[in-house]
Specification:
8 helices; acyltransferase activity, transferring groups other than amino-acyl groups; globular; 260 residues; two-stranded antiparallel sheet
Length: 260
């Protein structure tokens, strides 16, 4: 096992080449904002969650079915969270969702690049806040509230969403993935996929595989991660990850509940 680890560690032969991307990633100076592409002749957009209404839509339409957590963040915590941590929440939009057929294809050679944007996190947050304000209902009660960090319950999500005039429905969020970068001694970051969720109406249509394919590319070529790990909880997910060459590492994983 130790020999296998040694083979997988990329040596650092040029410290100058190492330190620049390391600091840029650490300070979130190079963050993929969006990647727009065609897949099987359908238009998609893979982008970071940059507006609070996107966060609310993810919580309401995707996460509520798969999490036992009953607390969600207000917009102040949300923007601090994406700005001050190595947490990267991404969503997959599909354009004209009503025309999407039951396609089960993993031919990623058919992906055709349209456009992409890499920005620093300050630019992303500014764009997100401006767009958030654009769709915010001006008569909402909490428009002029002072900055107060708070949580709210799952049953309050819809009332929070009602504070916004949501954008037109020519595109729809059909998937979500949480990516975390992890510090590691003497090399670039390791990474972890913490949560991959597909909208229940769009499962078994290769969208999970598509999100993971893009995420791996992102981690390798933009965030320069050394490796990516994840936890598998069901057979369907296991088959998906094996298609992408994830391997099972025999470990004795221990955990402790700190609050009982």
């Amino acid at each position: 096992m130790e020999e296998e680890k040694k083979k997988n560690i990329e040596p650092i032969n040029n410290q100058d080449l190492f330190i620049k991307p390391f600091i840029d990633i650490l300070n979130k100076k190079r963050v993929l904002y969006k990647y727009v592409f065609l897949f099987n002749n359908y238009k998609f957009k893979f982008k970071i969650v940059s507006t609070y209404y996107e966060y609310l839509m993810v919580c309401n339409n995707l996460l509520r079915d798969v999490t036992t957590c009953n607390l969600f963040y207000d917009r102040y915590i949300f923007y601090d969270m994406i700005g001050k941590s190595l947490y990267f929440p991404y969503i997959l939009y599909i354009y004209e969702p009503e025309t999407y057929n039951n396609i089960n294809s993993s031919n990623f050679e058919s992906i055709k690049f349209i456009k992409s944007s890499i920005l620093n996190i300050e630019q992303i947050i500014l764009k997100g806040k401006l767009k958030n304000e654009k769709y915010f209902k001006k008569n909402s009660n909490n428009l002029n509230n002072q900055k107060i960090y708070s949580f709210f319950n799952a049953e309050d999500i819809k009332s929070e969403i009602n504070n916004y005039y949501l954008p037109n429905k020519t595109k729809k969020i059909v998937g979500y993935v949480e990516i975390y970068l992890l510090f590691h001694m003497a090399r670039l970051f390791d990474s972890r996929i913490e949560r991959l969720v597909i909208h229940k109406e769009y499962r078994n249509k290769s969208l999970g595989l598509l999100i993971m394919y893009i995420s791996i590319y992102l981690l390798k070529y933009i965030y320069h991660c050394n490796r990516c790990d994840l936890t598998v909880e069901n057979e369907i997910a296991l088959k998906l990850y094996k298609k992408l060459n994830f391997i099972n590492v025999p470990t004795n994983v221990l955990f402790i509940f700190l609050y009982t």
